[in-house]
């Protein structure tokens, strides 16, 4: 017996005739002619080498072999139906896993709103989140642990799809008793000779601020280098130095009690982007998240210092 010679159509026809015990009823249900049904059953019987149905002038009788093959047909069609339904939900991004990596501040401050919209009406979806620094996020994306990343467009490897979505201003951060507390703004030059609390190497904040300070010719006294922005805020609060942070960090780490002064003049902003591998490699779930994220970000009311960019993934 050559399994490739058995078709799904033949199995469906046999199953319908065997269930109804009537070629007439089966033909009506399947919208086919009786001759077409009879020919399909005959071809199936020749392939299997057995008689499945016996027919006289009035009745259709299912043979013992037919009863056994009916069990096989039921199992095949039921399994296929379940599989096709599951695949249909996957293709419509109603089932599957969203694997996402993002900056911790974005995960705390903005991501919950995006996920509320994304998961609305799609309770069958699962979610896997990696939150950390820029280097962590990009590493997970490159390794394939996640499909989509939301992080700064700093040191992004060539070949990834980068869609800018947010732009953040930088602020000088200082203890309440620091002279900056009485100023409306500072420049990157004002950091010269200040004791400084820095984000660790590998983060977007460190890459951007190092470049900005170097461009301004400001030499800070690097006092601390920390991995967590909450720790950075605590050290500044305790008077161990000043720092510079983009706007989203205040929202994500609840640092609004610190003196925060806009940095004006020449200098960078931080641009956050949705980053992924080429579009054709994304799952339906990831493609839908890119679209929903862009839509929700345009609707959100964001704090001062954060602006939404117009591009849509």
Give a summary of the structure in a few sentences.
43% of the residues lie in helices and 22% in strands.
Textual characterization of the structure:
With 313 residues, the chain is of the alpha/beta class. It folds into three domains: 89 residues, Arc Repressor Mutant, subunit A (Orthogonal Bundle), CATH 1.10.10; 110 residues, D-Maltodextrin-Binding Protein, domain 2, CATH 3.40.190.10; 93 residues, D-Maltodextrin-Binding Protein, domain 2. Strands 4-3-5-12-6-13 form a six-stranded mixed β-sheet, sandwiched between helices. The protein is rod-shaped, with a radius of gyration of 32 Å. The mean pLDDT is 90.
Count of alpha/pi helices: 11
CATH topology of the largest domain: D-Maltodextrin-Binding Protein, domain 2
Helix content: 40-55%
CATH class of the largest domain: Alpha Beta
Query: Uncertain regions: pLDDT < 50 for 5+ in a row?
Result: none
What is the second-level CATH architecture of the largest domain? 3-Layer(aba) Sandwich
Average residue pLDDT? 90
Overall structural class, as computed from helix and strand content, comes to: alpha/beta
Q: What's the shape?
A: rod-shaped
Major sheet strand order: 4-3-5-12-6-13
Name of the CATH homologous superfamily of the largest domain: Periplasmic binding protein-like II
Radius of gyration: 32 Å
Number of domains: 3
Strand content: 15-25%
Assembly context of the chains? single chain
**C-alpha end-to-end distance:** 51 Å
| Biggest beta-sheet profile | 6 strands, mixed
Order of helices and strands: HHHEEHEHHEHEEEEHEHEHEEHE
Overall strand count: 13
């Amino acid at each position: 017996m050559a399994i490739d010679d058995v078709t799904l159509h033949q199995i469906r026809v046999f199953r319908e005739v065997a269930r109804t015990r009537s070629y007439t009823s089966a033909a009506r249900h399947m919208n086919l002619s009786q001759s077409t049904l009879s020919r399909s059953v005959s071809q199936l019987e020749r392939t299997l080498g057995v008689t499945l149905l016996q027919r006289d002038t009035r009745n259709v009788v299912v043979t013992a072999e037919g009863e056994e093959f009916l069990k096989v047909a039921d199992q095949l069609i039921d399994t296929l139906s379940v599989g096709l339904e599951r695949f249909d939900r996957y293709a419509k991004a109603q089932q599957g896993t969203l694997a996402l990596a993002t900056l911790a501040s974005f995960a705390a401050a903005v991501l919950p709103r995006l996920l509320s919209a994304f998961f609305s009406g799609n309770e069958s979806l699962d979610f896997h989140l990696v939150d950390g620094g820029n280097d962590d996020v990009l590493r997970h994306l490159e390794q394939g642990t996640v499909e989509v990343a939301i992080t700064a467009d700093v040191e992004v490897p060539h070949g990834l799809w980068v869609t800018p979505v947010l732009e953040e201003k930088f602020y000088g951060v200082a203890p309440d008793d620091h002279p900056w507390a009485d100023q409306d703004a500072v420049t990157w030059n004002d950091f010269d000779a200040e004791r400084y609390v820095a984000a660790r190497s590998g983060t977007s904040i460190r890459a951007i601020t190092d470049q900005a300070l170097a461009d301004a010719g400001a030499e800070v006294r690097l006092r601390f280098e920390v991995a967590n922005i909450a720790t950075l805020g605590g050290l500044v609060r305790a008077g161990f130095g000043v720092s510079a942070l983009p706007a989203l960090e205040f929202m994500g780490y609840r640092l609004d009690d610190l003196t925060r002064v806009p940095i004006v003049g020449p200098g960078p902003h931080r641009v956050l982007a949705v980053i992924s591998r080429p579009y054709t490699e994304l799952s339906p779930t990831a493609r839908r998240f890119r679209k929903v994220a862009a839509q929700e970000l345009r609707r959100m009311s964001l704090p001062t210092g954060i602006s939404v960019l117009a591009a849509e993934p």
